[in-house]
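Hi W.,

Here's what went into the run:
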Amino acid sequence: MAESLIELRHVGKRFAGIKALDDVSLSVRRGEIHCLAGENGSGKSTIIKVMSGVYQPDEGEVLIDGEPVRRLTPADSIARGIQVIYQDLSLFGNLSVAENLAMNGLLKERRRGVRWGEVRRIARTALDRLGIDLPLDADVDTLPTSAKQIVAIARALQAEARLIVMDEPTTALTRNEVDRLLDITRTIQRDGIAVLFVSHKMREMLEISERLTVMRNGRVVVEGPIVDFTEASITRHMTGHDLSHEVYVRPPQDEGVPPRLAVENLTVPGAVEGVNLVLRPGDVVGLSGLIGSGRTELALALFGMRPDHGGTVHIDGKAVRLDGVQSAIRHGVAYVPEDRLSEGLFLTQSVARNMLASSLDRVTRGLTVDRAQATRTSDDMIAAMQISTRSGATLVGHLSGGNQQRVVIARWLMTQARILILNGPTVGVDVGSKAEIHRIIRDLAVRKGLAVLMISDDVPELLQHCNSIILMHRGRFVDRFDGGTASEDTISAVLKTLR
Amino acid sequence: MTAQIPTNRAPTTKPGHSLLRFVNQDDNIVQLVIITALVFVVMSALSPEKFLRYYNFESISYTLPELGLLSIAIMVAMLTGGIDLSVVGIANLSAVLAGTLFHSLAPGASSSLGLGSVALGIVLALGVGLGAGALNGLLIAKLRITPILATLGTSQIFTGIALVLTGGPALVGFPAAWNFIGNGKVLGVAFPFVLFVVLALAIGFLLSRTAFGTRLLLIGTNAKAAVFAGLDTERIVFQSYVLTGLLASIAGLILSGRTNAAKSDYGTSYLLQAVLVAVLGGTNPAGGKGSVLGVSIAVLALMLLSSGFQMLRFSNFLIDFIWGAFLLLVIAINVARNRRRL
Amino acid sequence: MSILRRPEAVVALVLLAAMVIIGAINPAFWGLDNLFGLLKSNVITGIMALGVLLVMISGGIDVSFPAFAVAAMYLVVRWMADTGYSGVVLPFFVATLIGLVLGAFNAFFIRTFRMIPLIVTLGTASVVRGLLLGLVGTSVVNINRFPPQLIAFGSQDVVDVVHADGTRFGLSAMILVYGAIALLIHLVLRHTMMGRSLYAYGGAPEAASRVGFDTRATVFFAYCTAGALAGFAGLLHSSMIWLANPRDFVGFELDVIAAVVLGGASIFGGRGSVVGTLLGVFLLVMIKNSLILMHVATTWQQVVVGVIIVSSTALTAWRDRKRLA
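Here's what came out:
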């Protein structure tokens, strides 16, 4: 295995007695695209941190270029050509593209001074290497996520990387942007640079990688060339069991009942240009489109966060004016935001408080909160949503991603929501919890008659769990498919034409 | 981030797990009680004949309420991750305006004014507190100015207006009924202390038992998530600054009643002390955590410390030094404690 | 178009407008003696503001520097008065050093205990002032005992003008000292890695340590420089007014922070420039000093400063929100 660039042999790592890594062996060869797959908490991030020298393994050894490294520090790791692109990209939004690109090199040379001509030259070279043009003097903050990612990759290359580790690089990207990222990854590979793609998204893994390592519970469960795997087998290895592929079917409708939600000619200045939408009880409607297509603004308008919207909205046959979040909630609209950690949860507060956040008035008697009733309500909900937590008093930050997402959904069930808008409901949720969340959503639609609007980039997810799928582009609905009958290829093809 | 894996799927509810319990009886309160006891023991040992005299505790019961109320006021602002640097300015402006009113009602004989005028003065002083708090709330909640800068600016405005009104020197000669608020006695207990206890209980109740208190904590934990959860963050944050302003004006009322005087720059060292007490009392300056009980114990500890040093004939300047050093020490201790826990 | 978007340009425009208005109310504003006086009043606020600028770019805030300035000034002047030391360079060096060491305490607490800078610096300010007044003394060193060399240094002029009636006035040479320091800080911020590390750390602290900045050095640099500049400015201040009062500079932090914020620095870190700060300082000092020219009583100064802070931050907040929307 002399061609291994970096190799972990029988590595073990414990945190407070809990085994995060257990006898893990993994090698990344020079110039290969390797994929590291696993659910959240399977040990992927720990492996990245061992490779980058942030963590020292308790057992086993790390070899770089075939020779054992005694104590790998972050500086050593960078010096040996290993660059990690973390999910947050670690860019400086307040500085220019050029400076972000040149900074690593200048730091490596232990420079004290900065010459701006040189900075621009370095930056230009870095972008040329990827064959991409970006405004050098723009602040990184002003760029879209996909462009930021390119800056991060170019910066890593600039540091004479031989291996680039990308931690969940596609989370915030739309489909087209993912394609572009995969292209760039191939460009990098042509220069003989290895890429370790850390992901839990099937399509990317199958499309890009040459070899695959799957982890579960801190162990490597399987490893081999990508041709040996299928989507189903990867899922099985990641979760330890098979998942159902049953397509969602809407329950029969009572035509006499007015629709849950009827939207006519809804406009949001600069984002949505006159859309019509009808959601009936039991409907799960998927909404996809590129970032900037207006889909999030549409959702926010329905949730009362864009009081500047125009058009008419009827809920259960009644005309309503959604001019604030409180009024939207009063009318039974609920919204599960895109970014669970920063927009959905109060991490250092208890599970119960997180669930009750929107319905405190319901448990208030006179002046005070009725503690007994609050406890009862939240415990009932914990049981109903099958949230694994020791009690309602546990801090929500201690829960897994899937359980946290259930807490956010539970919050809305407490407000007796009738219309549930989910923005990226399973982003950053591991495969096992993902299935569970889908099951809950379907259940709510069928049994409680909720109308669900599910915004997602994950076309297979929409196909399986929606009875209807809408594509949005430049503020308008451009296409519509029936769930179950449409195929992933047709939708992907349409999405590709929407540039 | 290591995920803690919960073990049991079916949740069990223990009756003691009152989930909306505001004061989580963590070791922070215990630590505070220990510090207070320690201060008490050390000071008693250093000068037993002076420190343990009844007079000493009585005098503490008159001086504690001002600082205690200012500290609770700052704690309320800190709950949402803000701060109110204008509390002392509000306190002084309230007292100065009331004093100005008394002087204009009875030029030269303001100290003989009756109850009616005093009631008017109290309404005016509290009105200043509400108005000043509303201005802070408006700037912070509606215009979204960083609390540090907004209240730094308004503290200048409040102090400045008080200065313009007085022209510099202190206003003296408040009506007797007004002074009762600062140095009267009810059933042998200092009236300001009674007032403090009542207000502390009321604020404690408000924060721990009402939806408003829980909402404040949620906003302090994650303001963005609070918006998405449908909390009216603008209104709640605004109200919290109005409450802060009101508490500050009551502190000003007590201060001027106790000293029979009002001045634009009285008690400037109170600001640091109030911040110190709030932090010592377990308030997280980043928001989401704080309790009236903690702040109350902390203010007691610091009053004991301060009076002890005065017994030992330390100059007031050195007491300033000790307050500052104590603040830094508390920070260090808290960090050490949290590190050990991790 | 793009130049107008820079915060410096906005401050410059506001400054120009304010000058025109004040000049219209009282043409004496445009008198050379008034303008020279204004420039001179910029020096102390300005030097301290440059220090605070560094701290704010790094994402912190400092309210302790006036205490440090007073400590450095009073200790050095007392030492000179007591020993009769006659020199200028060493005293300024010592004052700067005192400020620097005190600044290091701030950095130590903020960095080691990860505590909010406002609270730490409130604490250190109280400690330093308390020690100075409690242990060193409370008496003012007035002109009778004030070191003459310092007076001589502080009263040098670069330009001398003679009025028609024979009275003379000049432009203080201290403006050159201020200019030199401003240039130096500008070069450091713009053209050294240390300067860039301040922006990087202020913008994204986590990322700054990941890419390999020595962020500990960055924090120490910011607070030590702020302390050192305050110490230096403190002594310079006393040599310009010929006395050393250990209770000086109370509340001065507000003016300085207001000036830096006016100059476009962000309290959240990562943004701010020397040019903006110079303009912000000038604007603030000019409005404060021109109250008399505009026939407003000086007791209004504090109110005016408060209104300036509130309105300028409100404007910035409003602009940022519009940009986001």
